[in-house]
Design brief:
383 residues, Rossmann fold, single chain, 10 strands, alpha/beta, 38% helix, 8-stranded mixed beta sheet, 16% strand, 13 helices
Length: 383
């Protein structure tokens, strides 16, 4: 199986879509294009110091970098990850690549730009490849709502719908909330409420704060190898037990189809356009929200062994591959990420685990035809 462990996901996609055809012999395969959409690596919390004091009675650790910045440890994990990926198809290469065949775009944040640099250092060490970053405050590609490319048509209706969707989450995860309260000595009981305006959508309420705290614990797990996190209270078992609450809250928002269309249509269009007529290799470095939006738009679900269903690990990425097989083109999609054990190790000894979501045999043109219909064209900046 090579350096990266490969796992085939459930057969949901094969059952749901009629355009799966029998794969032809591998000897006839030729890579036409590949698009990678990556989350940034391990970063410091995005919350202010004042906000963090309301989320625990204990003092939070010093991350050694500014708020929301990629840490040196996060940079090194990305670099090591992609140094392993460089030895596997479809990225295997010798020497520096022709830059005419590569495009890499990062969101405007420090953590995404530095993740892009670490990716290139691992994949193409010693080679100069320019990183494209929007000059505006918000990227129209990664954040079309923030960039005001489009607006939410009925924010009150969307907020009400999200509230209804989230009503059962505090009840379903009551034991996880109680465990988090014991760890932090802070109450997280309450309602989860959707909120929306023309250019912003999200949740508010204590269960939302609880999900944010769990995400900080997951980042700590990657940041400090060999140590327990959350003030020496959380090990891998406890983190696995808590993470489904984080994913449930996050997915209720970012995997909602309406939200995904507003926030993810620009990226979905970029992926399809790049596969059809872009450069051979395209790398898009953004956030966990981007991955979840794409998961909804393209009906993609994944699970790395030991991690929660549809969890977005730091540095995890979706890989869209277009292959020429005989006289036709196929689309193959996988999710790739480090396991909890890998991201907590002092040094990586193997590459990320690859979960095949759409394996060989799916007709590319029919896949594009099916999913292009979901894209909100008014949320795409064509300038």
């Amino acid at each position: 199986m090579g350096i990266m462990k490969k796992i085939v996901a459930s057969s949901f996609f094969l059952f749901y879509f009629p355009f799966i055809v029998e794969a032809q012999k591998a000897s006839l395969e030729e890579l036409e294009a590949v698009v990678v959409v990556s989350r940034h690596g391990v970063r410091a919390p995005t919350q202010s110091e004042k906000k963090l004091t309301t989320l625990s009675r204990y003092p939070w650790p010093d991350w050694g970098v500014k708020r929301a910045y990629l840490t040196p440890r996060g940079y090194e994990l990305i670099r090591q990850t992609w140094s392993f990926v460089a030895k596997e198809k479809p990225f295997i290469h010798t020497g520096c690549p022709n830059t005419q065949n590569i495009q890499i775009i990062a969101d405007v944040d420090e953590r995404t730009i530095r993740t892009a640099r670490a990716l290139l250092e691992g994949l193409y060490p010693g080679c100069f490849i320019p990183i494209e970053v929007a000059s505006e405050k918000s990227s129209s590609l990664f954040s079309p709502l923030k960039a005001k490319v489009c607006e939410i048509e009925h924010p009150q209706h969307l907020a009400k719908k999200l509230t209804q969707k989230a009503n059962e989450i505090p009840i379903r995860f009551s034991s996880e909330i109680e465990e988090l309260e014991r760890i932090t000595q802070i109450s997280f009981k309450g309602n989860l409420t959707g909120k929306a305006s023309k250019y912003k959508v999200g949740f508010e309420g204590k269960p939302y704060l609880a999900s944010s705290v769990i995400e900080i614990f997951a980042l700590e797990w990657g940041q400090w190898p060999g140590q327990l996190v959350a003030w020496n209270q959380v090990d891998e078992t406890v983190l696995r037990r808590l993470m489904p609450l984080r994913v449930a809250v996050f997915s209720a928002l970012n995997r909602d189809m309406e939200v995904a269309q507003y926030k993810g249509s620009a990226l979905a269009f970029k992926i399809i356009d790049s596969l059809e007529k872009g450069k051979k290799y395209t790398f898009l470095v953004g956030h966990d929200t981007n991955l979840s939006n794409l998961g909804a738009l393209f009906d993609l679900n994944w699970q790395i062994p030991g991690r929660a269903f549809n969890e977005n690990a730091p540095g995890g990425y979706l890989k869209f591959e277009k292959w020429k097989v005989g006289s036709r083109s196929e689309i193959r999609i996988s999710y790739n990420a480090l396991s909890l054990e890998q991201i907590h190790a002092q040094q990586l000894h193997q590459g990320p685990i690859e979960v095949q979501i759409i394996p060989p045999g799916t007709d590319f043109d029919q896949w594009v035809h099916h999913y292009r219909k979901r894209i909100l064209t008014r949320c795409i900046n064509r300038k």
